[in-house]
């Protein structure tokens, strides 16, 4: 019974030899191109802002690059707080409750 | 054509018939249930239908208005998608549970009175638990029991609230309640538990990742969204909800960053998204309520899409932890693309569904000049992109090469994901369609230049933060571990309670055993036999002495008599004689 259910839930397929074929991001050049495009688009986003007429609800929404800075800072704070404050507090070994 | 019927009936009847339909028609049968249901629903007019008298009350099984219709539509759509995704499952229990679960959700949102609403509310719990247990692992069994206990407690809280409320007002109609009186607070709390409010939330992050691959799709859609509906119906504009919702959006993202099980990451982001809805309901303006239910509609689609893509990964690889996965884009490109559509939608990228609904709640908060709330929501918007938008696709499909080269997901799964992805993009590109279904008229315009730019900047620079943190090695590595959450209190607390009870009650029990069972009773038994034996000896020895018995023979006779009385092996006649003598004595004494 157990075996039947397991096979019902998972259908694992055979694992190929990882080296047999090269895929899109196996080539470091493609990763570099992707990152390059990403950085350029960031720059464009920063520049466009000066050509957009804003109608803010709050005063700070009119500050230059408010959303860009907030997004960056928020994520750094999020990750740093999660890693250095939350994880040491709540991390336990697997099977802690068993 | 016949008149429309209550929406839940098709699902419930379908669920009952599932075991009897076999063979190649089964898939067709399962898929036709939500299709027929949706046709049935579209033909419905607003109003109140299917009223049944029960004792002195009037139950309403079909309160049809714009709010319940919107939830009705999305529940049918997601049922179709979830059933399609689960077509490979041979385990009938899961199909029956899934259909009953969807039927209960439909029953609950179309209920016009608190009694029938409560019954459907409880059926949600009972039916959904089989989607967790159907995984048939020890972890899912334990987690399912915790889920059941927590929801039973929440259900009782709701029931107590309903009883108090009905007692107080004399009405069972399920409309605006507001916070007034103890009954409404208990109802509020009961709704809150199913809504996964902070501290009440761990049932969700505990149980959803333990459910079956296909069961999680159902689970992610119904329980929390029925609770959102109930709050929108009974407590719109309740200020406490603004803060509860804002906290819900913010705290789970910290957990999501350090969580290893990718379906658990999605469970945390589910709470985060429901937070936006709860917050919108709390603000309570027409724009905010529209935003909340619109976001519920979209969230059901993109959250299911994300769970489906992770489910497909799990189905093919048998693994779900970030530490075990990576590099799957090579052989599962379509699943990868669908996952990224879901990720873009939940992150509210322009042209994806989250953008047109989440911003309504944000703007409603801004219109109400709620600065702190607005900052919290904006933080959560950046954070959700970080964990659900980037982390999920990155760790599953890119990141380091896990070496696994699984096949692409099966066709029916791809189709289910494709439909959800299509709808997410369609709503993002053409929001007017969904806006026309919302409870209040919509004047909101999501696509303005500053809004699109602001949101894109927010997301792209969040992505930059992720990229830089990852390249610099600061980003927390995925670890095999458990992260404590509020369920610690009852998981460890229950054990403590058990131990305290064991320490206090067991010794009392043992003492009672010693004193009463082994001590008092045995003593009494001994005395009652010994006394009679001695009495018999006194009489008989006097008699024997009178007949001249002496020495060794007398001693032997005494010993035999004593042993006979103690063992109860003397002839029956003696007992009968003694009883008769006793009765005669009583008779004589009475007269």
* Arrangement of strands in the largest sheet of chain B: 1-2
Shape of chain B: elongated
For the termini of chain A, the CA-CA separation is: 25 Å
Number of helices of chain B: 22
Q: Can you tell me the residue ranges of chain A where pLDDT is under 50 for at least 5 consecutive residues?
A: 1-8
Explain what this protein looks like in three dimensions.
The complex is a heterodimer of chains A (98) and B (591). By secondary structure, chain A is an all-alpha fold. Among the domains of chain A are: 30 residues; 37 residues. Chain A is built from three helices and one strand, in the order αααβ. Chain A is flat. Chain B is mainly alpha-helical and 591 residues long. Chain B folds into three domains: 235 residues, no CATH class; 247 residues, no CATH class; 101 residues, no CATH class. Chain B contains 22 helices and three strands. A two-stranded antiparallel sheet of chain B has the order 1-2. In chain B, a hairpin with a 2-residue loop joins β1 and β2. In chain B, α9 packs antiparallel against α13 and α10 packs antiparallel against α13. The longest helix of chain B is centred in the C-terminal third of the chain and has 60 residues. Chain B starts with 6 loop residues before the first helix and ends with a helix.
């Amino acid at each position: 019974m157990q075996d039947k259910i397991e096979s019902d839930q998972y259908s694992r397929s055979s694992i190929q030899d990882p080296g047999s074929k090269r895929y899109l991001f196996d080539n470091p050049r493609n990763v570099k191109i992707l990152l390059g495009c990403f950085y350029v688009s960031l720059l464009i986003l920063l520049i466009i802002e000066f050509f957009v007429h804003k109608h803010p609800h709050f005063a700070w929404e009119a500050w230059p690059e408010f959303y860009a800075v907030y997004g960056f800072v928020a994520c750094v704070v999020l990750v740093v707080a999660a890693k250095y404050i939350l994880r040491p507090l709540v991390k336990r070994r697997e099977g802690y409750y068993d | 054509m016949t008149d429309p019927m209550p929406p839940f009936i098709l699902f419930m009847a379908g669920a009952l018939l599932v075991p009897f339909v076999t063979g190649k028609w089964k898939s067709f049968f399962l898929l036709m249930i939500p299709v027929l249901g949706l046709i049935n629903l579209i033909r419905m007019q607003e109003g109140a239908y299917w009223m049944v008298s029960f004792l002195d009350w009037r139950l309403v099984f079909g309160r049809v208005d714009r709010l319940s219709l919107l939830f009705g539509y999305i529940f049918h759509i997601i049922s179709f998608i979830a059933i399609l995704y689960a077509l490979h499952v041979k385990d009938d229990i899961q199909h029956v549970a899934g259909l009953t679960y969807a039927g209960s959700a439909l029953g609950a949102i179309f209920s016009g009175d608190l009694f029938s609403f409560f019954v459907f509310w409880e059926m949600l719990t009972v039916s959904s638990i089989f989607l967790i247990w159907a995984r048939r692992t020890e972890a899912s069994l334990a987690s399912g029991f915790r889920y059941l206990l927590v929801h039973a407690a929440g259900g009782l809280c709701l029931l107590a609230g309903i009883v108090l409320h009905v007692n107080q007002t004399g009405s069972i109609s399920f409309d605006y309640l507001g916070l007034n009186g103890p009954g409404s607070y208990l109802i509020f709390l009961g709704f809150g538990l199913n809504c996964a409010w902070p501290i009440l939330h761990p049932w969700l992050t505990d149980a959803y990742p333990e459910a079956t691959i296909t069961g999680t799709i159902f689970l992610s859609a119904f329980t929390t969204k029925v609770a959102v509906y109930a709050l929108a119906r009974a407590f719109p504009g309740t200020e406490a909800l603004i803060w509860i919702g804002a906290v819900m959006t913010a705290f789970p993202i910290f957990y999501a960053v350090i969580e290893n099980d990718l379906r658990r990451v999605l469970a945390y982001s589910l709470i985060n998204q429901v937070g936006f809805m709860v917050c919108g309901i709390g603000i309570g303006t027409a724009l905010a309520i529209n935003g909340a239910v619109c976001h519920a509609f979209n969230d059901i689609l993109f959250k299911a899409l994300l769970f489906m893509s992770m489910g497909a990964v799990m189905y093919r690889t048998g693994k779900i932890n970030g530490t075990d996965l990576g590099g799957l884009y090579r052989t599962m490109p379509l699943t990868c693309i669908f996952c990224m559509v879901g990720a873009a939608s939940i992150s509210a990228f322009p042209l994806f569904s989250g953008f047109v609904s989440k911003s309504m709640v944000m703007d409603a908060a801004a219109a109400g000049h709620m600065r702190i709330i607005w900052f919290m929501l904006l933080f959560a918007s950046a954070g959700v992109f970080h964990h659900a938008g980037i982390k999920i696709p990155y760790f599953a499909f890119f990141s380091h090469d896990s070496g696994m080269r699984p096949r692409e997901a099966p066709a029916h799964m791809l189709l289910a994901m494709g439909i959800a992805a299509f709808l997410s993009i369609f709503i993002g590109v053409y929001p007017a369609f969904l806006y026309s279904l919302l409870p209040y008229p919509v004047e909101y315009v999501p696509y303005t230049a500053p809004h699109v730019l602001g949101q894109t900047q927010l997301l792209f620079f969040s992505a930059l933060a992720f990229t830089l943190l990852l390249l610099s090695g600061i980003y927390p590595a995925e670890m095999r571990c458990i992260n404590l959450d509020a369920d610690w209190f009852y998981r460890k607390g229950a054990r403590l309670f058990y131990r305290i009870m064991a320490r206090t009650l067991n010794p009392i029990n043992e003492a009672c055993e010693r004193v009463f069972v082994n001590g008092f009773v045995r003593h009494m038994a001994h005395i009652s036999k010994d006394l009679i034996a001695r009495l018999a000896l006194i009489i008989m020895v006097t008699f024997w002495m009178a007949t001249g018995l002496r020495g060794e023979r007398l001693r032997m006779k005494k010993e035999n008599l004593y042993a006979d009385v103690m063992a109860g092996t003397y002839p029956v006649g003696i007992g009968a004689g003694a009883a008769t003598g006793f009765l005669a004595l009583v008779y004589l004494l009475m007269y």
